[in-house]
# Entry
Amino acid sequence: MIIVVLFFMHNTMIKKFRLFPLKWLNSLLRYAIILFCFCIPVQRIEAAVYTNADTTPLSTRKMAIDYMNNIGTVPQSTWWPAVQPALFIQNIKNNILHPLRIYAGAGTDFCSYSAFSYLILKDNPLGYARFMMAIYVDGNAVMGKVEFNPSKGVRKAAGMLRFKGRLDISPADQLWFLVLADEFKGYLNMFDRNYHAGGESNLWASTNYAKFNRMVGRLLNYRIESKGSDLVRPIIPDLYGYLAERLKTGIVVLFVNNSFLYKKNHTLLKLGLPTHFIILQDLSIADNIITITYWDYGCKTRRQMTPRFLSKILFGVSHCTIKTNHEN
# Structure
């Protein structure tokens, strides 16, 4: 009950007085909701495998660009009044040509959708392009096993987000992130299911670990092997060896504690919880120091850390592989 009261007081203050969301309160609410839901059932994913019977759809960057170049003139969408067609199409082309530049925005909770974008732009950019054009023109679209019918609030907000850095001038990315957040829900979203102004920086856009894996499995049809959870770190005796082996065969997504990863000393409330998804690109070890290269926030970053520190910040490892044959 206390959690619910705090949550609605927080959102009411933001709406009534037009205040920006308090980051520390949002973190506290996230922490409280995780504890609350973790005690009801324990949502631990240990070596879980998500599969289905279809092969993974694949395409190339050239196929996607050829498709976009053949579209021609697109009229203003009645479904997305704030998204101008010329900027929308150019944004999609930029993502196809430069997938590593896609940016979740400053002060948003879109990092999980940005990590998901890396996956689809890497292996099926044509599927991404077709989906984006369909949902812009028709107002709804299908990807994988999911039919998207965005809510009125999301359709109105896309193209209107401001003070989010480069995301401000990326209308296709705004639409894409908002649509994904609107469709997929986890227990973190149970008290904030409908978009409202500022929802991109609140629990409405948050993603727990199981939700991320479900999103990848249902939309992209990867085979996903995952270890970890939202509260309990995975038990992996040889963490470096485990990650190195999985990098050889697929894409590795890490669910980490962002506050410790970036050493945010100015953070008012530093909770030992995972809040961020990154794509592991490379790692090496020398003198018991691990060097990792990872992608997030539109760029690659290299960090050195001890195995103990890596284990401390790591809460989930998702190993995503392409299905080239029909699997049961």
Observations:
- The longest helix spans residues 2-17.
- Confidence is low (pLDDT under 50) at residues 1-24, 38-47, 264-269.
- The CA atoms of residues 237 and 318 lie 17 Å apart.
- The chain has two domains: 44-51+210-321, 61-208.
